[in-house]
Design brief:
The chain has 192 residues and is α+β, with helices and mostly antiparallel strands. It has helices at residues 2-20, 32-35, 50-61, 80-86, 109-128, 139-144, 146-152, 175-178; strands at residues 72-77, 95-102, 132-136, 158-167. It has a four-stranded antiparallel sheet with strand order 1-2-4-3. It is globular.
Length: 192
Amino acid sequence: MKKLFSMLIFVFILTLLPTMLPAQATDSPALRPILHHFSARNFSTVPVTRAQIDIIIQAGLRAPSAGNRQPWLFTVVQDLNLARRILPEITEGSFLIIVSGVGDGSTNGVVILDCALASQSMFFAAQALGLGARQYTNSALINRTNSLKTELGIPQDHNAIIVTRFGNLPAGVDVMTSASPRANPETRVIYR
């Protein structure tokens, strides 16, 4: 009888386990930033903490890369005057992360893809922390301006791939009021 009771408890736990795993639910902490993210348009002037910046950087460092090469270099720009030379509309409290990699920026496709994955990981980490993030592809400005590239500490054999702005969001900002409309899934997904 005891053995039968133990077996029934074991089977009961096994049947409940899939429903109890938090990553299986669409409202899980792991999926929330992915399914509900948006590119912030407005940022508050409340500064992001160093602890938050460190978590965002860790997320980028943990991104997947081809052959585990991790070809990226992250440049964190907190100096407002320097950040405004890259992104004139940046406000106090926000900061930039420039992801760069070795190559000319057009023929180093694998490096570009890996840098994009690192940037995406940081984007989602910021969203999970309740911060706003917006990605920009104006990295050509950095690559064209050798003095700016040097001032940022980006090696000459690297090219900036993507610039992401991070910051706190103003009160009351939500995905409905701040996001651009998304494309209809029927026009972007093919099932065979």
